[in-house]
Amino acid sequence: MDQRARASLGWGCWLVALMGCTGGDPVAPPDAPVPEAEPETAPEPQGNPQLGALVFRSSCAGCHTSRDGLDLATFAYGDATVMRRALGHVDSTSARDILAHLRGLEVPPAPAGHAALTPVTRLFQPGGRVLADDLAFGLELFGEDAWPEGWSTDGLRALDPRDVPIALPLPLWSDENSNLDWMPDAEVPDAVLDANDGRARRHLEDYHRRGSEESLREAVAAIRVADRYVTGAPCSKVEAPRYDVCFDVRRWTATLTAQEMLRRGRAGQGAESDLPRWMTEPWWEVGQVSRRVMNAADSARGAGTAVDNAMENWLRWMYLGWIFDPGREPSPYLARGLVRTGYPRHAVFTTLRTLVSRQPGDLLAYHDARTVGRYAPAAWTAASLGFAFRHLGERLEAGESLPLEDVAEARSVVRAALDLARERLAPSALVELTALRDEVLDGLNR
Ligand code: HEC
Fold first, then answer.
1. pLDDT digit of tens for each residue in the chain (446 aa)?
2. Which of 57, 77, 347, 353 sits CB 3.0–4.6 Å from 338 for a disulfide?
């Protein structure tokens, strides 16, 4: 539809037309009378969508990494909101152009598990709702406040973490009142894009030109190197990090892969890792920098944190990454934070669900048992540690063998698992768990 046709139809009709009423509506009579009455106030002048696309790119895309504003169309922010936010960056003519452009974008289907996305959608919130607290989580999952006796490896593996409701709210796309959202508050610094002869910039330009996922993957890889390993990198571990910058670079990267995911309509159906790791890893890493902020604040005692809501961001982002890749990272990253904020049952669940996703021969599986032994709440300890030992026994029974240099460490963390739990166990449970532990130790000796 050309510009003039759109203007003569009027905005409302154009929207209707967009929604599929073009080409003759079979319901309306062909010669329905056209209302002639003039509106009482002159209509707002319509924006020019082509100009809007250009302005969006120059004035908004530094932060809105979709670059065409598809994120704003997808989460369906209202006209008044778009105008208000746009006016913070451009004049009212350009703001109207942007609005016209956004309204002309075709919104892809919502990711699995979501009906349609709205400003209050929490992307990938498991089950689409947030439970009241840790206890509610246990009751919802198992119907009682206990890890169920006799729960099997297959049973646990069949639980998709993306479907298990939790008490943590995952980030909104945009939250104007806090940093508990996906949207980065700042553009990615030039230094990051320019590092290594402009590697990230080159791949991003290629992605913008060709739209290929391959070039986006390369760009993300380049940013992930530039944010931590080059001289002066904001997330450096060898120089003083700039946590606030790092936090926003990471959110910027997180939205970059998320917008591609939204654009392609890809999103988490069925199999465990159907979003490639390079897309979800940046989400986990927003959690990682938030965790480092908390650790730094702990050691600086009361000096405050460089990033607001660091604790919440640690858990929410790590959880978001974890549900796509549960068998990957050391379990204490998530478990320690969960326990610290009063979610020990969540910690047991994530740790054991991680355990059953580990690759054969992964030393971290044995560390998972220790994580459970350390953090399980008293009423859950016997059954959940029993589960961990039985599962490790199954792995060894099935022929799992660790690299020789890992065996001593595996044995020591399995011992620690029971030692850490000992005080929370009834005598009979201790006897039973000792036997299970010894089977694992024997299996490791074979
Ligand atoms: C400097 C970074 C930056 C630029 C540039 C920017 N935005 Fe945003 N925008 C944000 C952030 C961050 C949010 C998330 C909410 C918040 O933290 O205020 C956001 C949120 C929004 C929202 C959703 C608001 C809501 O109700 O939650 C709209 C709409 C929006 N931006 C439009 C625009 C438009 C249009 C432009 C360009 C004219 C633009 N923004 C330029 C950073 C930016």
1. 344 443 333 333 333 333 333 333 344 444 545 555 555 666 677 999 999 999 999 999 999 999 999 999 999 999 999 999 999 999 999 999 999 999 999 999 888 888 899 999 999 999 999 999 999 999 999 999 999 998 999 999 999 999 999 999 999 999 999 999 999 999 999 999 999 999 999 999 999 999 999 999 999 999 999 999 999 999 999 999 999 999 999 999 999 999 999 998 765 444 434 789 999 999 999 999 999 999 999 988 766 678 999 999 999 999 999 999 999 999 999 999 999 999 999 999 999 999 999 999 999 999 999 999 999 999 999 999 999 999 999 999 999 999 999 999 999 999 999 999 999 999 999 999 999 999 999 999 88
2. 347
- List of residues 6+ apart from 252 with CB closer than 8 A: 63, 65, 184, 186, 187, 188
Q: How far is the CA of 105 from the centre of ligand 1 (A)?
A: 17
85 lines ligand 1 (CB under 6 A): yes
Tokens of 242: 């700039």
319 Cβ inside 6 Å of ligand 1: no
Give the tokens for residue 268: 């988490």
Alpha-carbon distance of 233 to 246, in angstroms, equals 8
> CA-to-CA distance for 13 and 434, rounded, in angstroms?
73
Sign of CA pseudo-dihedral 204, 208, 214, 217: positive
The closest residue, in CA terms, to atom 30 on ligand 1 is 85
Residue of 58, 64, 309 best suited for mutating to test ligand 1, as the one with most atoms within 8 Å of CB: 64
Question: Does the beta carbon of 31 lie inside 6 Å of ligand 1?
Answer: no
Among protein residues, the one with the nearest Cα to ligand 1's atom 18 is 176
Specify the residue with its C-alpha closest to ligand 1, atom 2: 63
267 lines ligand 1 (CB under 6 A): no
CA distance 157 to 166: 17
Q: Give the position, in ligand 1's atom list, of the atom nearest the Cα of 173.
A: 14
